[in-house]
Amino acid sequence: MQKVFEELTAAFRRAGGEISFEAYDRIVRKHATLFEDSETIYMLLQASGYPIEETLTGYRLQTMFTPWQEQRYCVVDIETNGSKPGRSQVIEIGAVLLEEGRIVDRLETFVACAYLPEHITKLTGIEPSDLADAPSRAEALRMLREFMGDAVFVAHNARFDHSFLTASFERFGLGAIGNPVLCTIDLARRTIESERYGLAYLNETLDLGMQAHHRAYNDALATSKILLKSLDNLPESVRTTDNLIRFSLSSRSERNKARKKKSGTPTA
Q1: Any domain includes 34
Q2: Which of 8, 94, 155, 214 has the smallest number of Cβ neighbours within 10 A?
Q3: What is the Cα–Cα distance from 245 to 4, expressed in whole angstroms?
Q4: What is the edge-to-edge ordering of all strands in the sheet holding 18-20?
Q5: Residue 93 lies inside a defined structural domain of this protein
């Protein structure tokens, strides 16, 4: 489904946020199986958290019309017993749901796990006994899927959390994560002056007041505070949620272009 997300988003952006039924069909038909059609894929997209909606003339991407101030954000953090989703698993999930600058809901759960390396216990303080009677992986992931809805997926170093959770979701038949992704490291680099942008460093220098680093809920809460501080510093040109996501990525693309130019590598 990841290819569908990417191609549809690119098409929506080229068309200003809305595409016709015909344009939608051309894209999804390339990825449909014998057991799927355009309507089935539309339902799968919505179930995955991709913010698509049907109109009288086609489809629209909601984030291209929603002011960022009115957007729902799901700030997520996970703890795992290793770095590779193929050999490791989530052991704790923490998430907060933000609307209009305030927390409206929270999710915090351990995840059942039979193997917990000692160095993970030392890092997180999580003990094997904490996980013994916790919800199963499938149950905990379903809880997160329902909690997120179609909110923007926010995390500090979102690439890790998103990729690990996507692999976990797919392993348990929950499909890919279609929610738009916003990384608070990327956004903070554009909006907050700091020597470093790690979560612990920003927690201290911004005086966020969070104590327990490497615990999922507290780290999700700290990340939500970084998000809110960053949103306070946005330029006026950022108006919609899609503007916000693209703005957060612009510094990285600009740095990549500068690096390629310096090395003599063509940028186009």
Answers
A1: yes
A2: 214
A3: 19
A4: 18-20, 58-61, 52-54
A5: yes
